[in-house]
Structure formats: structure tokens, C-alpha cells
Amino acid sequence: MQITFAVKPPFPCSQPLPLPYKERQLLGASLGSKDRGPCLGLQNPQGSWSHYGTTFPSPTSALLRQPARTLWYDRPKYVFMEFCVEDSTDVKVLIEDHRIVFSCRNGDGVELYNEIEFYAKVNSKDSQDKRSGRSITCFVRKWKEKVAWPRLTKEDIKPVWLSVDFDNWRDWEGDDEVELAQVEHYAELLNKVSTKRPPPAMDDLDDDSDSADAATN
């Protein structure tokens, strides 16, 4: 395969040509190992690419990643997200003011990756995540409270792996104090739950609270 440069390099191609990352990804993925020259960078034994001392992930490994099935629902102060992955390892959750980045490996060693631009700004410093044997749950604090989110994503496009958690979705007007107590209770339950049991639904917390009140009375 022959590569034609728009501008002829002013120097011999003994050093990697500073191609943009996306172009290098596309070229690296389309060329066979024999066709990859030093102009595309130096390929490491692990499959990643070095370019002027900077190491980038292999284009092939990026293509093998899969999104994790994700559930979400809306409450007055929080947006709840659940990444449904059993026996997860190497879990990484990054919550920023406008997006969340999630990655892990499932029980079969498959790499999972989700990146979501939020519908609205969130308070990343007051958000948290908890892990169980069946999923990773994120409590994302809204920047503007008591403002309903019609969707989770910034763009009005629904990925196939993202669904509304209808088991926990409900009308929440005047429910903010109850919600805050449930967040704390839910986080506490996740710390205690067995690694082989699924986390409880939010509606189960109401039953637990009623049982506790009845026992007290």
C-alpha cells in the first residue's frame, strides 16, 4: 500500500512524522504490519504506539472495547446510574462536571468502556460511586436541584446500551428529603451487600424503612 503525503516532508522519514492522533489511528488500523513505516510511529510489543516519546493505545484494542449496559433514573437532587457488570475488575469511574467516564473488565476479561456527556452540569465533588458483585452504581449530584432531566445524555440520541430504570423511576415532587435519606441508606447497603447478590432497588428501601418504623412502634 502506498501512502501519499499532502506536503512532502522536508526531512528524511527517520523520525516519526507528527501526524494527528486520529489520522495515525486510521492509518495504523488500515495498514498491515509490513506496511507500517516509521512515519506512523513505533509500535511497541504490547501493541501500543509511541510517537515522539508519547505512548498511545493500540487502535485494535480500542476497537475491541464494548460498552457496559447502563440503567439510569432521575431524582430531585441526584441522577442515579447503574453499570451492569458482573464480577468486575479494574474498575475506574471518573465523574466530571459535564461527563462521566467508566471502564472495567467483566468476569470474562472483556474490557468495557462508557463515556457519557451529561444532559446538564453536575456537582462532581459531591458525587460518588459504589461497587457490588453485579454492578457499579453512581450517585451523580445535580448542579441545579429539582430540575427534571428528560434524558441522561447531552445529545438527543439514545445509545442502544442505555436504558431508563423504570423500576426506580417515579414522580419525585416534594420527595427530596426522602431521597437524601435513601441515598445514604443505599450506599450503606451496598457496603454490606454480598458480592454475589444484586444491589437492592430503591423501592425496597421504602419497605425497609416501614419495617423499621413498625418495629420501633
Automatic annotation (TrEMBL):
Region feature Disordered, mapped onto this chain? 192-217
Which InterPro entries has this protein been placed in? CS_dom (IPR007052), HSP20-like_chaperone (IPR008978), p23-like (IPR045250)
Could you confirm whether the keyword NADP appears in this record? no
From what organism does this protein derive? Myodes glareolus (Bank vole)
Q: Would the keyword Cytoplasm be found if you checked this record's keyword annotation?
A: yes
What are the record keywords, sorted? Chaperone, Cytoplasm
Instruction: Identify the taxonomic lineage of the organism of origin.
Output: Eukaryota, Metazoa, Chordata, Craniata, Vertebrata
Q: Where are the transmembrane segments?
A: none
* Name of the protein described by the UniProt record: CS domain-containing protein
What are the CS domain coordinates in residue numbering?
65-153
Give the GO cellular component terms, alphabetically. Answer: cytosol; nucleus
